[in-house]
Write a structure and sequence with these properties.
Order of helices and strands: EEEHEHEEHEHEHH
Strand order of the largest sheet: 4-1-5-8-6-7
CATH architecture: 3-Layer(aba) Sandwich
Catalytic activity: Hydrolyzes the link between N-acetylmuramoyl residues and L-amino acid residues in certain cell-wall glycopeptides
InterPro entries: MurNAc-LAA_cat, N-acetylmuramoyl_amidase_3
Organism: Photobacterium aquimaris
Protein name: N-acetylmuramoyl-L-alanine amidase
Domain MurNAc-LAA: 78-197
Largest sheet: 6 strands, mixed
Number of domains: 1
Helix content: 40-55%
CATH topology: Aminopeptidase
Structural class: alpha/beta
Strand content: 15-25%
Distance between the termini: 13 Å
Oligomer: single chain
Length: 210
């Protein structure tokens, strides 16, 4: 089955040692380390893209630039690329690091029951397998693990879309030991890839049975 995975690295990167999105950074920790979210988001989406390519799954990073591209432009790019695939074979993953105090990972979808909820469940299961001792910040009031919000990237895209908030960059332990470590980043990449592969496999089974 041909599927297209669109990858959205949130916020801007670093150009000439200048970070492109104000405020989207960790504190400067006592060890001298500091996380810039746009750099992290790009590293994770690059890793996901490389893994999906090895599996033979079509994918596209919709913001290859280091500049912070507007949400409207991101959505327009995603919707344009999705036109070449059937609606139910296209998926958008928007990758972020969290802030505001807390720990763990959050997986967001738009409001209501959609294909995005199925994707989120696959990602949540993969996360629990790869990070068995880390909290998934879930909302089970509607019967599944995702959190539902009216985020622009989730509301305006024409395909299933999920936004992941990967640990807290203002939590020193999570930031230094997971978000900024090669091992931690690889595990974040792995849970995204495993969740995506599970969704693609499920879609293949559904189509084969129809």
């Amino acid at each position: 089955m041909k599927a297209l995975i669109l990858l959205d690295p949130g916020h801007g990167g670093i150009i000439n040692n200048v970070y492109q999105t104000a405020g989207k950074r960790s504190p400067l920790w006592s060890n001298g380390q500091q996380l810039f979210e746009g750099e992290f988001n790009r590293a994770i989406t690059q890793g996901i893209s490389q893994a999906l390519t090895l599996y033979g799954i079509d994918n596209k990073i919709i913001v290859p630039e280091l500049e912070d591209i507007s949400l409207r432009s991101r959505v327009d790019r995603a919707n344009f690329l999705a036109q070449q695939y059937p609606h139910h074979r296209c998926l958008l993953i928007s990758v972020h690091a969290n802030a505001g105090g807390g720990k763990g990972v959050e997986i967001f979808t738009s409001r209501g029951q959609t294909e995005s909820d199925i994707v989120a469940d696959h990602l949540a299961h993969a996360f629990s397998q790869i990070f068995p001792n880390k909290p998934l910040r879930s909302d089970y009031r509607d019967g599944d693990s995702d959190k539902e919000r009216g985020f622009y990237m989730l509301r305006k895209t024409t395909m299933a879309a999920v936004l992941t908030e990967n640990f807290f960059m203002d939590n020193e332990i999570e930031c230094c030991l997971i978000l900024m470590s090669p091992k931690g980043r690889q595990k974040i990449i792995d849970y995204h890839v495993q969740g995506i592969l599970a969704w693609v496999e499920q879609r293949f089974r559904v189509e084969s049975s129809e």
